[in-house]
Amino acid sequence: MNDVFLRALAGQPTPYTPVWFMRQAGRYQPEYQKLRERYTLPEIVRTPELAVEVTLLPVRKLGVDAAILFADLTTPLPGMGVSLELVEGKGPVIERPVRSQEDLARLRPLEPEQDVPYVLEAIRILKRELDVPLIAFAGAPFTLASYLVEGGASRRYLEVKRFMYRDPEGFGRLLGLLADSMARYLKAQAEAGADALMVFDSWVGQLTRRDYRRHVLPATHRLFVELAGAGRPTIYFGTGTMHLLELLKQAGPEALGLDAVTPLAWARERLGATPVQGNLDPAYLFAPRDRLLAEVDAILEENMGRPGHVFNLGHGILPGTPEANVAAVVERVHERTGA
User: Fold this and answer.
1) DSSP code of 288?
2) What is the pLDDT of residues 32-85, one digit of tens each?
3) Which of these, 16, 68, 151, 289, could form a disulfide with 97 (CB 3.0-4.6 Å)?
4) Which candidate in 28, 46, 99, 147 is catalytic?
5) How far apart are the C-alpha atoms of 255 and 333, rounded to whole Å?
6) 7 assigned to active site
7) Is 289 a catalytic residue?
8) HSE-up (13 A, CA, CB side) for residue 24
9) pTM of the predicted model, to two decimals?
10) Is 28 helix (H, G, I), strand (E, B) or coil?
């Protein structure tokens, strides 16, 4: 197996900088669009052969150095007793939001082998097909709680903050349940064969440092402590988190993903030897080729050849992205760093 990605996550010198992309399989790919004409997203996720097909697409077409399992952050939530619907163009819609300790009583701990067997089966199949590492992922406690409390995506996160401030004990119980369940989920994926574990905290940048430290860090740290026993490297990523950088490190991951507005060189100075992943703005993938590649070069120069860098985006690939530009980034990173 090409283990350059795993060596970079360990902070070891590598023959070149590994590269992969968040949402590297999905709506910008013609093959995926054809599948979506026949199947919904949940149907693809719940059919191992289809999830495998979509996961393999960018590895075979783009030459990336890691695969990430095709799934959704909300995939494990129905197994916890959450009734939700994925609405095109809107995201997850939660039928009965969780806004009190009474609502919390409706939830149950996730049992991965029973609740998400299709995820584990997809991983087992992929491990027979892949020659690069496979990344499994889950939502972080705060981000999953945001969906559960808000009832879906949000702009202001008023309901989740109201719950957090009004009933910190109940909110802590919710985050603790999510931390324990996602630890089970990720460890089961590791046992099925996943080589690295990524935790997405997409909305945690909405919090102040004080609120993150007081209300969120304990449960997130609990998650990473549990994952330490899985024997797989972990990556923690959120958007709008430049002000939280040192606190995210305290949560306990091996590596941190950087969003597009966090200067890579500045982050590396603040984080010391902690490996980082990132952080091209995904909008650059729509830019003229010369401007795109110049920005790729600038990010590589910011890293200054230091070990422990995985090239990625500062967020996921956007719909409508020209696939040729994604391939050009992979080629450029490999070419400029020694592959």
Assistant:
1) -
2) 999 999 999 999 999 999 999 999 999 999 999 999 999 999 999 999 999 999
3) 151
4) 147
5) 20
6) no
7) no
8) 30
9) 0.97
10) coil
Catalytic residue among 3, 72, 180, 211: 72
Closest CA to 217 of 181, 172, 265, 258: 172
Per the annotation, the verdict on 147 as an active-site residue is yes
**Nearest-10 crossing angle of helices 289-303, 323-337:** 40
Q: CA 301 → CA 20, 298, 304, 305, 329, distances in Å?
A: 18, 5, 5, 7, 15
For residue 95, give both structure tokens.
């039928």
166 is catalytic: no
Domain ranges in the chain?
4-337
State which fold the 4-337 domain adopts.
Answer: TIM Barrel (3.20.20)
Inform me whether the pLDDT recorded for 339 exceeds 80. Answer: no
Residue 157: half-sphere exposure toward Cβ, Cα within 13 Å = 17
23 is catalytic: yes
Strands 309-310 and 134-139 come out as unpaired
Long-range contacts of 238-241 (CB under 8 A, 24+ apart): 238/140, 238/143, 238/200, 238/201, 238/202, 238/203, 238/204, 238/205, 239/202, 239/203, 239/205, 239/314, 239/315, 240/205, 240/206, 241/201, 241/204, 241/205
Q: How far is CA 94 from CA 3, 99, 108, 112, 189, in A?
A: 39, 12, 16, 21, 25
Quick one: tokens of 146? Answer: 């945001």
Q: Calculate mean pLDDT across residues 305-323.
A: 97
88: confidence class by pLDDT, cuts 50, 70, 90 = confident
Bridge partners (DSSP) listed for residue 198: 137, 235
Give me the catalytic one of 3, 16, 36, 336.
Answer: 36
- 91: pLDDT strictly greater than 90: no
Q: Report the relative pairing of strands 276-277 and 309-310 from DSSP bridges.
A: parallel
